[in-house]
Amino acid sequence: MKTIPYILLPVTTLILSALLLAACDERKASIDAKAEAKKEILNQEKVAVDQAAEQAKKQTDINATMDKANIEATKAAEQADLDAAKKKADADAIAEKARLDALRK
Prior knowledge:
Blueprint: H1 8-104
């Protein structure tokens, strides 16, 4: 049986240790790359959420403006109806007075 020279044992150990460290460094680099990819995805989602919120705010402002315009239009229509009813009441009163005056004569 051949014996391994004792000088090869530390060299072999050193080579195996270097290979093991290189493999660990590759795994660490892979973990770092995955973490960076996740961060980038989360940043993109954050931007999308910000854009959606901004769009929702704009739509809310548009809806509020439309609601205010509808309220003002309804108010104007109701006031016009009330003004017309007032004029009709005045005209009815004048007509009733004229009828009474006509009956007296």
